[in-house]
Amino acid sequence: MPTTTKPATSVSATKKNSAGSTAKTSKSTKAVSAATDKKIFVLDTSVILYDHSAVQNFMEHDVAIPITVLEELDNFKKGNDIKNFEAREFIRFIDKLSAEHKLQQWLPLNGKNKGSFKVLMNESARVDATKIFGDKNDHRILNAALELQSEQPDAKVVLVTKDINLRLKARALNLVSEDYETGKVQDVAGLYTGNDTLEDVPAAAINELYEKGSCDTDQILEEQPADNHYFVLKSFKSSILAFYNSPEKKLERVDKQAAFGIKPRNAEQTFALHALLNPDIKLISVQGVAGTGKTLLALASALEQRHNYKQIYLARPIVPLSNKDIGYLPGDIKSKLNPYMEPLWDNLKYIQNQFSESSKEYQKIKEMVELEKLMITPLAYIRGRSLSNIIFIVDEAQNLTPHEVKTIISRAGENTKIIFTGDIYQIDTPYLDSQSNGLSYLIDRAKNHPLYAHITLLKGERSELANLANELL
Fold it and tell me: Polar residues bias located where (predicted)?
């Protein structure tokens, strides 16, 4: 096969950027450094469906997609799911980029110090992955990257995919392969928890919190904590729960409070309910394993604040069972969706059953559901709606991408509170993990913002049997 070369303008742009980033090296080494650092990233379909703007996130390096990726994206362009949106946005992007050019050529990407982009048409590699692993789209994508590697021996070709198996197959064929890192949280073990326990706190400070309800932070802390951070403060004889009020620069006492019949059972639940009921905190995330009360507290707090908002939306992303589309389930659309929404209805029924059927609280929940003041619905059915004057609870947020989380928050209008709940270690969506899911991304990026609070719930409160499963199995 003939070797394809890149336009002179693209090569010189790469050299200029490399030279600029190594200003202290001698002139004789700059050309060598530019050639050595040159990379071409080949993206597979999973990366595009995760982030349609991915091709813009490789700095000065070049980006390519195999023609098979375009074919697969064509199958995803119809629908209301986020992956359909990502497919459509990417198709529009390359349509605009290639309006006056051929996609088989290297096209400069828009933006300062950006590389170039092209579609790889040749998927017939000398080391044929389709003969080794079988004839399927993933292996044609592999072939395209392998052939590009042979055509560009001076460049480092890297296959970028969120498919772990595809990465392993690429490495087996001596092709460098990586996960898509943009939006990934590097240190999940050190992820922000939203609260701390402080020992040996001066008794005078705790007494002041009890008596006055607040105290200056310098009595306890050496430096200012994150906005809306929570503390368990302990001295030799006593302890107290506290909250950092960032506008006032003070620590305030946190008292246990109930929400629509639901009472917190531990310190973290008390913190979570305090944040959920705080009108000044507009964005909240609650993270924890099954049984810690995430969804229950969020729903109870929303019902408690129902007079301040026109509607309550409780939504969750639909993750098809066994990777099958919901179309295979029997019945109409409501029947198909019931299995996915049932856990949310269970939480609502639990709150409702705190009261007798004749009580006004029980009847109020029933009335809200009938009048659609409280709606439990798939997340896809919310997309595109105005999010003004509502409480919007997003359950199982760990199954969202960072882009989905950003899209939801960016649609918030006046007098809207958004609550994300989930467990970052319980991922049900392919190509997401504890580092790359939207909930982890939100916790990592939004911490220390005055409108945001986060609490990690540690203790299961569903039952002793449920705790056994979480701890031992």
Answer: 1-11
